[in-house]
């Protein structure tokens, strides 16, 4: 009977492996969705607004434009 108890926990673990494989497969397309542009060339509009604001008002006053640019870069596939 002790052996049956040892075997029973192993059975539920075997279905976990396909779940792990599915999670890895879901993560697989992430490298395929790499940005198609260089980060310096992505989001030129938000980059320009961010840069102009920082030059004129300083970084502390431009958080709105900095965050808008980061959001745009993330939408383009960059991890920022």
Automatic annotation (TrEMBL):
Its main location: mitochondrion. Cu cation binds at residues 40-41. One of its GO terms (molecular function) is copper chaperone activity. Pfam families: COX17 (PF05051). GO terms for cellular component: mitochondrial intermembrane space. It is found in: Mitochondrion intermembrane space. Keywords: Chaperone, Copper, Disulfide bond, Metal-binding, Mitochondrion. Residues 1-36 are annotated as: Disordered. InterPro entries: Cys_alpha_HP_mot_SF (IPR009069), Cyt_c_oxidase_Cu-chaperone (IPR007745). PANTHER family: CYTOCHROME C OXIDASE COPPER CHAPERONE. Belongs to the COX17 family. This is Cytochrome c oxidase copper chaperone 1-like. It comes from Phoenix dactylifera (Date palm). The lineage of its organism: Eukaryota, Viridiplantae, Streptophyta, Embryophyta, Tracheophyta. The gene is LOC120106193.
